[in-house]
Amino acid sequence: MPSADITEFRRVLASSKKILVLSGAGLSAASGIPTFRGEGGQWGKYNASDLAHRSAFEEDQSRVWKFFHYWRELIRGKHPNEAHYVLARLAIPGIRHAIAPDSKLTHITQNIDMLCTRALTETESALMQLSDSEIIEMHGRILDVICTSNHDCDYHATNVDSPICPGLAGTETKVAAGDWTAVVKRKDLPMCPRLGCGQMLRPDVVWFGERPKRIEEILELASEADLCLVVGTSAIVQPASRIGGMVKEHGGKVAVFDIEKSNHAEEADFLFLGPCETKLKEVLG
Ligand code: BV8
Ligand code: ZN
To answer: What top-level branch of life does the organism fall under (predicted)?
Structure first.
């Protein structure tokens, strides 16, 4: 039965040397970004298997690009929330107090909204101190694009254009209203800007069936961690959902932060129920 004893958790946290944070869509809920499952969930309106799959992209590039354009425009006006900043401050040696100065913290996020990275960069510049930890965006980043050419073009970039190409302009409103009828012609979809290439670009996110980024490093970190904070994830999507269990298998402890009991929460050592945008600060102090 997981404990909710904050004093005991803080003791474990302060004595941990290798700490992982595994975050999911619940971390960004307070930033106004819909989660995937649960009421009003993103997938509730769209079916992941139709859209976040390489085969879906090959089959209907217009439909998948309209979905990711919708995502890009949705994310645009959003900002990190207090939960992102609490985790970012944990990564700054000069100000953190909850964890040992010589501990190593790695934040692995499933989120593609780039808010964890933004919160860390903003915190570093506000405090004029560099973090000594790393963020691994294991499912990619919504504003990153890569060329689909199988030849020698390795074009990839973070593209902040809104819209990413004229052909997608305005389609987000229709998609938001559930109207998917409009078809954007192939030539009007995002194309590789590299001279002589001209192949189509795709979002640099990890689709279902594709290899998560830096997965070997992630599995290695999970096998060595003393403590894993699992924040705002339903822990359904693999291999991310296996990370907490791997930490426990190797003798580490797991603390789940969620608004409800997510998958594997019962097996955790600590369970702190409540919105992470307030609960993280309350528990981490
Ligand atoms: C892989 C990017 C091999 C794209 C995403 C059968 C057939 C085919 C495949 C499989 C299969 N069975 C299993 C698989 C593997 C598959 C998988 O897991 N499928 C699931 C559906 C069963 N996984 C893959 O294909 C992965 N690749 O396995 O490759 C491999 C493996 C290892 C090594 C080498 C090769 C790739 C998966 C990545 C898919 N891409 N996103 C895009 O976003 O469009 S997944 C997407 O969904 C997100 O990135 C995220 O990861 C996931 C959503 O999960 P959550 O973040 O947890 O969000 P959710 O809404 O579910 O939960 C929110 C939680 O927050 C809830 O618990 C809620 O209570 C809580 N919450 C809400 N508000 C708050 C809160 N908590 C605190 N405070 C709040 N305020
Ligand atoms: Zn190219």
So the answer is: Eukaryota
Using alpha carbons, list the distances in angstroms from residue 266 to 36, 232, 254. Answer: 22, 15, 11
**Structural tokens at position 25:** 């869509």
Q: pLDDT band at residue 101, thresholds of 50, 70 and 90?
A: confident
- Crossing angle (nearest 10°) for helices 115-127 and 82-90: 60
Q: What is the pTM of this model?
A: 0.96
CB atoms near residue 214 (< 10 Å): 15
Q: Is residue 139 flagged as an active site residue? A: yes
Q: From the CB of 41, is ligand 1 less than 6 Å away?
A: yes
Q: Report the first-to-last Cα separation within the chain, whole angstroms.
A: 23
Q: What is the ipTM metric for this complex?
A: 0.95
Rg for the chain, CA atoms, rounded: 20
Annotated active-site residue in 97, 139, 156, 264? 139
